[in-house]
Design a protein that fits this description.
The protein is mainly alpha-helical. The protein has helices spanning 3-15, 19-40, 58-77, 84-95, 113-121, 125-136, 142-156, 167-177, 183-202, 206-220, 231-254, 266-283; strands spanning 47-48, 53-55, 103-104. The protein has two domains: 3-39; 105-286, no CATH class. It contains twelve helices and three strands; from the N terminus they run ααββααβαααααααα. β1 and β2 (53-55) form a beta hairpin. α2 packs across α10 (206-220). Keywords: Membrane, Transmembrane, Transmembrane helix.
Length: 288
């Protein structure tokens, strides 16, 4: 079902219900999406069909995630939900998103691995993604490291789709949940993990920032063991995010690519505003 149709149906359904019931429904939707997103931290977020594997663009994913986030914002603040005009703007922005074009493996199926490697070395981000998918299906353990390198290279070249596959996310999550880790080690892992999501927001992919940080607290902060960020924690997260940003941009500069372009298409601005409202409500004092 098209995104705008889902939004239209959901909006109409919420209008027929009282406010408390509406909020309850969207909370359930948010919880379901949060559980799905938590799983994608460890498992590559790809969708499989009979003939191809597709890596979705960040704009398409942001549109889908916004259905629940925007509905939650509308139900709790009274502000407007995305309308069909907004959705058309978002779809147009997706088509014009040069930095992270939608990628289909079938577009590169004609190329062998050696050719794809040459194309990737020349800066073809879609070729990098095609190689990543090829290695994903490989049984060769050596290809795991190649996948890591491809994610890094794609990000250096300006791609914003591959953020969710950054190897640091899974390794930091493992460090945080390690039962043998000391409180200091767990705290440092948390700072780094939240900083990587903050870096994604600095690069213009606010959906990944909001959802990644929300999911962390949904999964790990409990009534029995709540996680409360201090002002010093937030300062450390921002400083680390700037350091991560500088490291990636430094690699770009070495290649003569210039600074990152962090611009956001007009079609995404309202969506991100609504997502931020939901983010602030969910995070409370932990919002960064």
């Amino acid at each position: 079902m098209p995104v705008h149709a889902i939004i239209s149906n959901l909006s109409g359904f919420l209008k027929m219900m009282n406010k408390k019931a509406s909020i309850l429904i969207v909370i359930v939707i948010i919880a379901i999406i949060a559980l799905w997103q938590a799983q994608t931290i460890r498992n590559p977020a790809i969708t499989a069909s009979e003939n191809e594997i597709v890596i979705e663009s960040d704009l398409l994913k942001a549109t889908d995630i916004a259905v629940s986030n925007a509905s939650n914002s509308s139900a709790t603040t009274g502000k407007g939900i995305l309308n069909e005009s907004d959705i058309r703007d978002i779809n147009k922005a997706n088509e014009q998103n040069i930095a992270s074009p939608a990628f289909s493996q079938s577009d590169y199926a004609m190329y062998d691995e050696a050719t794809l490697e040459r194309m990737a070395d020349s800066g073809d981000v879609s070729a990098m993604k095609a190689l990543w998918v090829k290695y994903l299906k490989s049984d060769d353990v050596n290809d795991v490291e190649k996948m890591r390198q491809l994610v890094t290279k794609a990000i250096v070249y300006g791609d914003r789709d591959m953020f969710q596959h950054m190897p640091e996310l899974s390794s930091l999550s493992d460090r945080f949940t390690n039962p043998e880790a000391s409180p200091e080690q767990k705290h440092n892992a948390m700072i780094d993990l939240l900083a990587y999501h903050e870096f994604m927001g600095m690069r213009g992919n606010l959906s990944e920032k909001y959802s990644g940080q929300e999911v962390f607290f949904i999964v790990h902060s409990t009534p029995e063991a709540p996680i409360k960020l201090t002002a010093a924690d937030k300062a450390a997260i921002l400083a680390r995010a700037r350091e991560i940003y500088a490291n990636y941009e430094g690699e770009r500069m070495k290649l003569g690519l210039g600074p990152f372009d962090n611009s956001v298409p007009d079609g995404l601005k309202k969506l991100y505003e609504m997502q931020r409202e939901s983010y602030l409500q969910a995070m409370g004092d932990n919002a960064i």
